[in-house]
Amino acid sequence: QVEDNKGRTPSDYMSNPGELKVPTRKISDKKGSGGSKNSSGSRKRDKVRVPKQRVPPKRNGVNITSANIRIWIHDQDLPRLEQVVWEGEGHRLLKETSNHTKVRQFLNLVPRMMTKIREVHQAAVNGDLETLEAKVDQPEILTAKDHNGLNPLHKAACLGHRTIVEWVLSQKQAPISVQDRKGRTPLHYAAVSENYPDIYEMLVNSGADEKHTDMYGKTAENYHQKPGDLDTSVVHERPTAPRSGGGTLDIMGPSRNASNANSKQPSRVPSRNG
């Protein structure tokens, strides 16, 4: 008969089954095994860490897409269409048309609005207060952005134009907390200005949030410590505008307040007369 390494035959184990030890398989808790068991006996799943994605800030709650623009045109939602221009997306409206008279009038004014926004930005970059005062005839144009999401205050703060910053802060609805495409406020740009901490403190005293972080998790002070991390060349980029945009035009009026925020009328009824 066949014997094992202990010299025992199957008959021996049949007579004394207790002497046969059956090995058990040990379940590994190593990575890939599905995790260990908890006190109830059910298997726990290993937690998977998902890296946090960098998400750019929302544009004042306005989701600007081609589909939404067509909806707003159909609904004659002029405030929404106006916001498209202030958000630096006016070029999306240049080829649009409408059968509605008011919408068509507004769309015809978009090139001039874009030209005026570019002039306001250029005045802020040049530190030209006289031109800025002449061009700004409604508070919303100070919130108007270029394609990077910067408004005039972002640029003036970065370039150290104290008089421009002071004047903008004195206006209604000064865009102190308005963010660019990367979540940066004017304070982030003031932190790398040659006039730091003068303009920086001016913004803080006007209500700027020093704890606000951009999409990279950095505060304004972080950029002051490492100014090379912020690309300041963007402040010299001009907003886009068609060549046929024309001259200045009193295009929009006073800001909408909470009582008429849901109105489908623009800040001011568009007019071709300056």
Automatic annotation (TrEMBL):
ANK repeats lie at residues 182-215. This is Uncharacterized protein. Residues 42-57 have a biased composition (Basic residues). Residues 1-61, 221-274 are annotated as: Disordered. Keywords: ANK repeat. Pfam families: Ank_2. Residues 221-240 have a biased composition (Basic and acidic residues). Residues 256-274 have a biased composition (Polar residues). InterPro entries: Ankyrin_rpt (IPR002110), Ankyrin_rpt-contain_sf (IPR036770). Gene3D superfamilies: Ankyrin repeat-containing domain.
